[in-house]
Fold ABC transporter ATP-binding protein.
Amino acid sequence: MQAGMEDVAVEVRRLRVVRGGRTALDDVDLAVRAGTLTGLLGPSGAGKTTLMRAILGVQVVAGGEVRVLGRPAGSPDLRRRVGYVTQAPSVYEDLTVEENLRYFARILGAPHHAGVDAGQGPVSVDEALETVGLGNHRRQMVRTLSGGELSRVSLATALLGSPELLVLDEPTVGLDPVLRDSLWTTFRRIAASGTTLLVSSHVMDEAVRCDRLVLLRAARVLADTTPGELLRSTGTTDADAAFLHLVRHGSEEVRR
Ligand SMILES: Nc1ncnc2c1ncn2[C@@H]1O[C@H](COP(=O)(O)OP(=O)(O)OP(=O)(O)O)[C@@H](O)[C@H]1O
């Protein structure tokens, strides 16, 4: 079933991007449905970061169209409605977790404590810390945090803007399985509150944690589907095998 326009948080049509003379995205079409946790999966160099940059409106494109929350990507009014966490942590090492969040909250106009109507209005520092499970680390210096905790501080700063769409570029890279699991649980919690999440990863087994999947390979979309449909259509039992099947036998449009 095609999603209606009102259900689509991100719509990409015939997107083409050339970076340094190389085609980084080639005729990419996809739709990210509102309120879903969508995984953008593919091997290193497939074009995941480039696609996210195009969605953020910071990527020069050679052709095609990208619409985000009904507006052209990069529109000024999207700045507060879309959160982006890159692979490089963008927090201050010589401040505590809470000091970092208070600093970003001030910039974004987010409250320090939850208001009377918790769950309504902007996300507070307390709520953001709670959501990422860092309540017990609030007074710890960022430079002493583990890799997974550091990723979660970046995620918490993005939550402060109460974005409708959250774009996360390989947030679990380099983390152990336990931390990866806890981050995916956090993503699910954020999605359950109605936020649309687009999360990239090159670890195929993370596919099962998503509502929807977009598989990228060599600048093209191999499949735009659900985890269950991916396994069914390829006759495989895990996401790695499904990906290899698509690579070897051609995708011929796994789009459902
Ligand atoms: N400035 C650049 N000059 C030349 N090639 C580039 C440039 N930036 C990106 N590319 C190429 O574009 C392709 C897509 O890169 P992109 O960063 O989108 O991949 P990715 O899927 O995010 O990879 P990774 O998982 O390793 O982060 C890669 O082949 C990369 O080498």
